[in-house]
Write a structure and sequence with these properties.
This protein has no helices and 11 strands. By secondary structure, it is mainly β. Strands 2, 4, 5, 6, 9, 10 and 11 form a 7-stranded mixed sheet that branches. Strand 5 and strand 6 form a beta hairpin. The radius of gyration is 13 Å and the shape is globular.
Length: 113
Amino acid sequence: QVKLVESGGGAVQSGGSLTLTCTASGFNMGSYTMNWYRQAPGQEREYVAEISLGGGIIEYADSVKGRFTISRDNAKNQVYLQMNNLKPEDTAIYFCNRAPDFWGPGTQVTVSP
């Protein structure tokens, strides 16, 4: 069964850090570009970051550039999102995405002022 499961979300204060993990099963993650997206309450789902098959190409949304780091371990079938200097506006449900259209259920990140 093809599955993506996010973990590592939680509640932190502004300036804090979290690391999200997306674990894939049922397919070889190394064959796909992987993305992180997020959706805040009442807002559209928005792109956060992407990493190519081998990790050689990485892109970020301007809103997280310099604070978030995406990485992957294809041997473990996992992709990560290290989030530093978190801000209240980072509060959202964070989703792992196997390009183009397979999604995990998401993990909640809440940042208090």
